[in-house]
Amino acid sequence: xLCFLKGMAFVxxxxxxxxxxxxxxxxxxxVLSGHVNPFLPYISDTGTTPPESxxxxxxxxxxxxxxxxxxxxxxxxxxKQNQTSYISTPVFNLVSLVLGLVGCIGMGIVANFxxxxxxxxxxxxxxxxxxxxxxxxxxxxxxxxxxxxxWNSLSTCHVRxxxxxxxxxxxxxxxxxxxxxxxTKLEWNPKEKTCPKSKLLFQHGS
Length: 206
Fold this sequence. Notes:
This protein is mostly helical and 206 residues long.
């Protein structure tokens, strides 16, 4: 049953590489098309107007799929490790997987419902992706500590927990800023003396 997991290490690597490329490519196209302020625009703004909206939607959809594949692989690995040495309850591992998959669904919502077309749905998907993603990383960090030192080094556990802590600390400011800042002006004109208002903080929230 677990034979398909062999050689799956490329999946998380592909997830990070593909997702980074999605943000960079859509940003470059949006800036070259004059659709956004080049100085740290809100990520969603770089995927709102054609042609970058098509690129953003396609690539983020695939990122959501890769994220789900990564999380399911991790779930099966922990499940297998539990058979050798008790790490955590199966329910704890399952809850972590479900939250991760819900976060991936949120990514899909962000990709398919543009910021200006259906803002409520888009923002809801972004919130779902971010909050569920943060809780998922926190639960996985706890599992890592429980599996140390047999399956993880202590330094790996510390790194994972540090990432989780930073992500958790960003939740409240992200929600606050997202609720206070209005939609960035699109079709930015570089000849204007005053720059349009940019959503600078916690742009990873959507």
